[in-house]
Amino acid sequence: MTGPLAAFPVALPRWMAEGPAPSLPLRLGGGASAATAIAALQFALGVELERYPYALYYPAVLAAAAVLGRGAALAATFASAVCVSFLLLEPRNSLAVDGTPDLLALTAFVFTAGLGGSLIELLVVAIRRLKSLQRALIDEADRLRDLNDELNHRMMNNFNILASLVLLEGRSHRDAAAQAFAALASRVRLFARLHAHLQPGRRGHRVELRPFLDDLCRDLGETVLAAHPVSLGCEMEPIALSDRQATAIGLIVNEAVTNAAKHAFPHRRPGTIAVRLARPAPGRLRLEVADDGVGRGAAAADGGGSGLLRRLAAQLGGSVSIDADGGGSTVTVDLPEADPMADPRY
């Protein structure tokens, strides 16, 4: 999986952050061994660092805490204190400490090294827990994504089945009734297409209108225009809108094409219908559905279908004009690109 969860930053190597934690005996023994290794190295090289006898033991304590985890820092700290007091502090080869300065320095080392190592141990534990939580969240996100995909797939299938049943029922009727069933089927399929083109985004669901309306026009050609020798084409710019806007625009196209099929091409008159969506000015959109039929005239312009177009456009903050005076007719919808009902927090 990619995204913010998969890119979660860690301050430790992968095997340290994600591998199994060592057992307690291994952590304690490893911490003590780290201090003993420093003492052996000092003895072998003859390096005493009289002014800074603890300089090499701090890294050993911190490394043991980072690599081994809880308990290792304390084991390394006390082992380091024993090594320094036995090998470097007077009297040599004895655990006794002669002199207040040396005792204070030893005490300060035990406190600071133990505290620093413990903080690193806590950091390692926190990173391990966060990585475990990250893996759980990734698994849950994958499960929810698969569940959402399955739900959308089933909803699309149900919409298509319903549309097919409506079309099947329409075949048993004639003329106006058959056209009404075909129009209803195209509206049902519109919602199936909408689900197929939903694009989850940071600010909600977005729909790319070009492929969505291409598929919608193809469905209209197979349903509403199936009995007409009329071709239907789409021409539009790449525009992405909210799912609410896309639904309204899809219904406008569906209604306008249905009206054209009813009124513009009587007696199986051949012709064309063109759907165009453009951005004539920044922040503005223009949707046109034009046909080269006989023209629908005022009767069609004032009909119920036209009223639905105006209500849909009003939901988008737009307006509708219908030109049906000359040859053919054109439905034009001018609307803002921004969703007037969008959440103002975004």
Keywords:
8 strands; rod-shaped; three-stranded antiparallel beta sheet; Heat Shock Protein 90; alpha+beta; 346 residues; 58% helix; disordered N terminus; five-stranded mixed beta sheet
How are the secondary structure elements laid out?
Blueprint lengths: L13 H5 L5 H22 L11 H12 L3 H16 L12 H71 L4 H23 E4 L2 E5 H14 L7 E7 L3 E3 H21 L7 E11 L2 E8 L5 H5 L2 H12 L3 E5 L5 E8 L10
Parallel strand pairs: 3-5
Antiparallel strand pairs: 1-2, 2-4, 5-6, 6-8, 7-8
Helix pairs in contact: 2-3, 2-4, 3-4, 3-5, 4-5, 5-6, 6-7, 6-8, 7-8, 8-10
Question: What does this protein look like?
Answer:
The protein is an alpha+beta fold. The chain folds into 2 domains: 14-138, no CATH class; 173-336, Heat Shock Protein 90. It has 10 helices and 8 strands. It has a 5-stranded mixed β-sheet, with helices on one face. Strand 7 (319-323) and strand 8 (329-336) form a beta hairpin. Helix 4 packs antiparallel against helix 5 (100-170), helix 5 (100-170) runs antiparallel to helix 6 (175-197) and helix 7 packs parallel to helix 8 (243-263). The longest helix has 71 residues, at 100-170. The protein is rod-shaped. The two termini are 26 Å apart.
CATH secondary-structure class of the largest domain: Alpha Beta
Number of discrete domains: 2
Largest sheet: spatial strand order: 3-5-6-8-7
- The level of helicity is 55-70%
- Quantity of strands, as a count: 8
Beta-strand residue fraction: 5-15%
**Series of secondary-structure elements, N-terminal to C-terminal:** HHHHHHEEHEEHEEHHEE
Overall SS class: alpha+beta
Beginning-to-end CA distance, first to last residue: 26 Å
State the CATH superfamily name of the largest domain. Answer: Histidine kinase-like ATPase, C-terminal domain
Examine the coordinates and then state which fold CATH places here, giving the name of the CATH topology of the largest domain: Heat Shock Protein 90
Task: Please count the helical segments.
Answer: 10
Average pLDDT over all residues: 78
Kindly provide the radius of gyration, computed on alpha-carbon positions and rounded to a whole number of angstroms: 38 Å
Largest beta-sheet characterization: 5 strands, mixed
The unreliable regions are 1-12
CATH architecture of the largest domain: 2-Layer Sandwich
Overall body shape: rod-shaped
